[in-house]
Each structure stands twice: as structure tokens, then as C-alpha cells.
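Q: What would this chain look like folded?
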Amino acid sequence: GCTGRTATGIDVSNTQFSSGRRIIAVDPSLIPLGTTGTLTLANGQSFAVVAQDTGGAIRGNKIDVLVASESEARRLGRQSAVLTID
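A: My prediction, written as C-alpha cells:
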């Protein structure tokens, strides 16, 4: 699982959520931190998200979904997704 804090200061040692939404990492030059929306994955799964983090590899139209484990990250893998902003 993840440890540490997001760019907005949320301790993610024991959670993947903020205010009931999954935490995502974004490029803040495109999606401001704090933005909420719905992320729909290529397999049709969708969930409420909030942009609370950034990352070194997150540039442009990339989004990173915070997950609880390496196995979940491998299960999700890299895929196309659509972010609908609230």
C-alpha cells in the first residue's frame, strides 16, 4: 500500500479516499487539485474521484488512481479512462 502524504497533505497510509471519493494524481496545470468528478475505466467501472495528488510521471492527460496494494495496481494496469468533471 501507499505511505506518506499527497500533494495536498492527506495521509494515505491507511486510506485511498478523501471525503468518500478515490484519490487521483493529476497534472495540476490541466486539472486543478481539489477537482472532483467521475472516472470511468475502459472496462466500464466508474467511481467518484478527487484530484489530491501529483506525481513525477503524471504529465498531460495521465491520471494515477491511488490503490491499496501492488496487486490492485497490477489488476487495473494502464488503460484508457474518461474523467467527467463535476
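Residues 7 and 53 are 5 Å apart (CA to CA).
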